[in-house]
Write a structure and sequence with these properties.
alpha/beta; five-stranded parallel β-sheet; 5 strands
Length: 180
């Protein structure tokens, strides 16, 4: 990580769910606009690294038997089903071009929000972070819920990079722009 510019020492970048099962066509959780934002997410990561901004890779990883999956998705983990983002699977890996480096932090979640039932808030508080920049998929679910929880937890600034986030359609994505 580059030497931190004090201007950015209270900011962190969250990269949410940029995993093969969400991004690649044919993936069981494919987000249609996901592949289009990969270059912008890579650029956001590069800029964050150049400014010494901590990068938190927020990923979904589930038990292959689906025991930690939301009730409405458990059918996807029965015999013969795709078992999306199962621990250790190729689908749970980050899409090509995105790499967790030694100074980065990887956070595993099992629900929409990166804060729900994780230690993200404690980690960010310990690092003195009060401003968040959000990238990834998918806007109406994981992005929105993480933003709402960050606001509820009193983060000073929560910024969503619109061209580094995506949803199933551009109408859904653009319709979710609830903050300016």
């Amino acid at each position: 990580m580059a030497a931190a510019d004090t201007k950015w020492n209270t900011t962190a970048l969250l990269v949410i769910d940029m995993q093969n099962d969400f991004i690649l066509p044919g993936g069981p959780m494919h987000v249609k606009g996901g592949q289009d934002i990969v270059p912008n997410v890579i650029k956001a990561v590069e800029i964050a690294r150049s400014r010494g901004i901590p990068i938190i890779w927020v990923v979904r990883e589930h038990d292959p038997l689906g025991r930690d999956v939301e009730l409405f998705r458990r059918h996807m983990y029965s015999a013969g089903k795709p078992k999306p983002t199962s621990k250790g699977s190729a689908g749970a890996e980050l899409v090509d071009g995105l790499i967790v480096k030694d100074d980065d932090y990887k956070l595993v979640k099992t629900r929409f929000s990166a804060f729900f039932n994780t230690h993200l808030h404690l980690y960010l508080q310990g690092a003195g972070i009060s401003n968040l920049v959000i990238t990834g998929v998918q806007t109406p679910n994981c992005i929105r819920q993480t933003v709402f929880d960050a606001v509820a937890l009193d983060y000073q600034t929560v910024t969503v990079i619109v061209d580094a986030t995506a949803a199933a359609t551009s109408d859904i994505h653009l319709g979710m722009q609830f903050f300016t």
